[in-house]
Structures are given as structure tokens and as C-alpha cells.
Amino acid sequence: MQMRMMARDNYLIWTISEGGKRFNTAMPAFKETLGIEDRWKIIHFLRTL
């Protein structure tokens, strides 16, 4: 059985919204390009993986 570390939803929504600059990653912030509903859809999708 594979164990995965699951991030909390509030951390995921913050990371998607603000991007990865704080952690020196290339992921852009999506708060200006995706609405809040679409950002939550991404989180729901990630939970299915």
C-alpha cells in the first residue's frame, strides 16, 4: 500500500492562488487568471489522483 502525504485544502488553495515564488518554484500565481471556483475544482481533481 502506498502512503501519501495529503496537504490540507486551505494550504492547496493558498498555493494555487499565490504560486510558488515563496518556495523558489516556477509555478505562477493563478488568483488573477482563475476564479475561486476553478481553483477549488483543481483541488477536487487532485484529491482523485
Keywords:
single chain; 49 residues; mainly alpha; 47% helix; 0% strand
Return the average pLDDT rounded to an integer: 88
Number of helices: 2
Cα separation of the termini: 15 Å
Helix content: 40-55%
Structural class: mainly alpha
Shape: globular
Beta strand %: under 5%
Estimated radius of gyration: 12 Å
Order of helices and strands: HH
* Low-pLDDT residue intervals, each spanning 5 or more residues: none
Multimer state: single chain
Number of domains: 1
- Find the count of extended strands (DSSP E, 2+ residues): 0
Main sheet, how many strands, which sense, barrel? Answer: none
List the helices and strands and how they pair.
Elements: H1 9-18, H2 36-48
Helix pairs in contact: 1-2
Offer a quick outline of the entry:
By secondary structure, the protein is an all-alpha fold. Helices cover 47% and strands 0% of the residues. The protein has helices spanning 9-18, 36-48.
Question: What do you see in this structure?
Answer:
The protein is mainly α. It has one domain. The chain contains 2 helices and no strands. The protein has helices at residues 9-18, 36-48. It is globular, with a radius of gyration of 12 Å. The mean pLDDT is 88.
